[in-house]
Design brief:
three-stranded antiparallel beta sheet
């Protein structure tokens, strides 16, 4: 049994920096006693978090960073439209878009902030699978990750886009962000992010295996 956090990770009450605005803020929180990531409504998502630190913060909460497959299954049922999810707006508080809820009750899986997932990509491969070149999603595997891409938006896959590189080691993030527009969605995957990258549109979500 796997429990997925209902909300994007937020900053716990015992953290010295309530709203991190840089990697340095996140690092300061990550080493502070009692500072953990929380799943809580009506807070700003914790941003400016590099991939490995996201793993660490989930572990400090007794959880793990959500995997690509679990992320996809937890996101199913989310409405991939700007009227419900924050894909053509500004950053929202967790759960603020009440209709942006998946079939299992998770909020903001699409839009708001990109969500880092536990999926390292090395030289264009993920878990032994060769990923396609960057393009619009035209076929996916059981984790909702593109196996084929094309040059034209495909409405079957929400017109979502897949970012990929043939060489290098990268982190993976999913769902799009608050200004991702039609490129954001259930099948939107960014697999070209340096593991030490952190930005204002990137967050994370934890899960717990029981």
């Amino acid at each position: 049994t796997i429990c997925v956090d209902t909300y994007e990770a937020g900053v716990g009450s015992n953290c010295p920096v309530a709203e991190p605005a840089s990697v340095q803020d996140t690092l300061q929180n990550s080493i502070a006693p009692g500072c953990v990531a929380v799943s809580k409504s009506a807070v700003k998502p914790w941003r400016f978090v590099p991939y490995r630190i996201a793993e660490q913060l989930c572990a400090q909460s007794g959880k793990t960073l959500i995997t690509p497959t679990v992320w996809y299954r937890a996101a199913l049922g989310s409405k991939d439209v700007a009227a419900t999810c924050s894909v053509n707006r500004t950053l929202a508080l967790t759960g603020e878009r009440a209709e942006c809820q998946s079939g299992v009750g998770a909020f903001d899986m699409i839009g708001n902030v990109w969500e880092l997932v536990a999926g390292e990509v090395v030289d264009g491969e993920w878990q032994g699978q060769q990923l396609p070149a960057a393009g619009y999603v035209s076929a996916v595997n059981d984790a909702g990750i593109a196996t084929q891409t094309g040059t034209q938006p495909n409405p079957i896959y929400g017109n979502d886009y897949f970012w990929s590189e043939a060489t290098g080691t990268y982190a993976m993030m999913r769902g799009g962000y608050y200004n991702g527009r039609s490129d954001a969605g259930l099948f939107s995957t960014q697999a070209t992010i340096a593991e030490d990258f952190a930005g204002s549109a990137v967050g994370f979500r934890c899960m717990l295996a029981l």
